[in-house]
Amino acid sequence: MGKTKYIFVTGGVTSSLGKGIIAASLGKLLQARGYSVTIQKFDPYINIDPGTLNPYEHGECFVTDDGAETDLDLGHYERFLNIPTSQINNITTGRIYNNVIQRERAGDFLGKTVQVIPHITDEIKHNFYKLAQTELYDFVITEIGGCVGDIESLPFIEAVRQVRFELGTSNVVCIHLTLIPYLKAAGELKTKPTQHSVKELLEAGIQPDILVCRSEYPLNQEIRKKLALFCNVQINHVIESLDAETIYDVPLLMLKEKLDERVLNKFKMSLKGDPKMESWKEYLGRLKNPTSEIAIGLIGKYVELKDAYKSIAESFIHAGAVNECKVTITWIQSEDITEDNCEKLLGKLNGILVAPGFGERGIEGKITAVKYAREQMVPFFGICLGMQCAVVEFARNVLNMPDAGSTEINPGTAFPVIDIMEAQKNIKEMGGTMRLGAYDCTLKKGSKTHQVYGSSKIAERHRHRYEFNNKYLEQFEKHGMVASGVNNDTGLVEIIELTNHPWFIGTQFHPELKSTVLNPHPLFVKFVKAALTFQKNI
Ligand code: GLN
Prior knowledge:
By secondary structure, this protein is an alpha/beta fold. The protein contains 18 helices and 23 strands. Glutamine (GLN) is lined by residues 356-358, 384-385, 408, 463-466.
């Protein structure tokens, strides 16, 4: 941790202010100035990781290369910074306690009472420092989940206080993100909630260095002065964060407000000239000046909460920009789709994506959507469960296997075309036991997918227990659904595609987890392109 500087981002007043985006934007700017940066998130809940949480509770579960099931903010970190994250980048209270309790059982603390302070806080600090021990970073940004004042985040806040004390304020900057609400009746922006939130931090022994204030309206000088005076921060350390048109505007808004400059000044570090944001600006230019527009149907069972499909939605934004095309996602609840209404629900779409998921709910609607896309030649993209639905649909309607299915949904099916993986059969524990993380995949030369990637060796991230049943592979291939990507070590089918369809691809992995602003995912880029072509031809 030698010369690494630590930046902590806490939040106050309400949740959902976008700490992850602020952290990622600051990281982006520091990186664009030539510094090495990583970001981590500490979540206050007791689950060891979000892998066992329902997406309705917590949004998408983001999977890293090393197979960690993590908070969706890590997706933002990767998409902004274009660097991979790992398990060390996301720690929960549950994991902290679990580590301490395991050590207690092992006898590491023999004779001692194990307590929140120092044992839990020491374990938190140990994890704050871990990233800087694996690689030399100029900055480690740590986002503390939840709000200051929450009972459950107290040990995190105390650990931040200790780090600030131990490393000194020349090595630690604390940024507090708050809300400045606008009271319509009074016609005024209000600073009081922020004052209270900072007071709460001060009570915990932390003086924030910088305030980032979310607001619907610009902060005038008077408001800034007031915030500075009552929160003990320099006036130029009051940073305004207005609602943005897209999250990708935030780094430039923060640049304008000089957030990165204030941080570097605080650390007495060089600005190294202007940040290199050219490619980012170019991306924004394309994003904001589309020359066409398409509608993609996203068929899923969690569509009421868009965060459940965060990475897919962001991947479409990246891919849309490449194609200078505005991608409008039509969110369709898979439970609503039937043979009778599918023309009405899907007929206007230029592409259909069947989303990942678990369990029975909405499955028949997904299969009906696949059938529609296959028969009507609509570009189709199936991800994980979406790919499995494509396999089931093909078995039922092309291969004449009437009740073909996945054993996840129908354990007694006569045609288990999707079956549990051998390695999963004896697993009893649910947490962290799926096939997780990046696996290599070899693409079939001459296949559509091979063309899309432009290479034959890829590695993509997985999160599943079920797989294509190779017993049926020959039959599928004979009738035009081919395995265009296979894992050489296990023989698992990772990608299927139709040979007699303009664009019909299903992946057992999650390509959306690797799309970034600077590296949009080729499958999304080409799917959008196929949707544009389809639109032109109808
Ligand atoms: N439920 C399926 C499986 O476990 C698909 C998982 C997913 O879509 N991520 O294989």
